[in-house]
Give the backbone structure.
Amino acid sequence: SSAAAGGSRPAAAAATAGAAAAAPPKFTIAMKEQLLELYDQREAGGGELHGEALRRFEQLKAAKAAAAKAAAAKAAAALPTALPTAAATALSTAAEKGLPPGWAAYRRGDCHYRVVSPDGECYSSLGGARAAAAAAAA
């Protein structure tokens, strides 16, 4: 009979673990207060906890770590998968400003642009860059 009871524990633990994986773990204010209280008890007791206090302390630490990990994963999932690079942004900006492919336009803080031709020549105005692009195309 005890073997049968022991055999059902892993199944129950697996079901609990599956349910925990489905729902994001929460670390409530009450749990935080309990953990802080146990930290205080541990300090007052010479750095050790025993029995139920130790079990609850480990349980709360694990819950806190799981909640932090879930929050980090959620934050990472919210980020776009492909962040635009400065070069890609500059190429698309140049195309929006009417420059041919291969030209790059970097917006400066003073509402002006630094435009770079495909051969590496720099221009400080869009008009000058457009004139150079037209001359190169002719």
Q: What stands out?
A: Residues 1-7 have pLDDT under 50 and may be disordered. The chain has five helices and three strands.
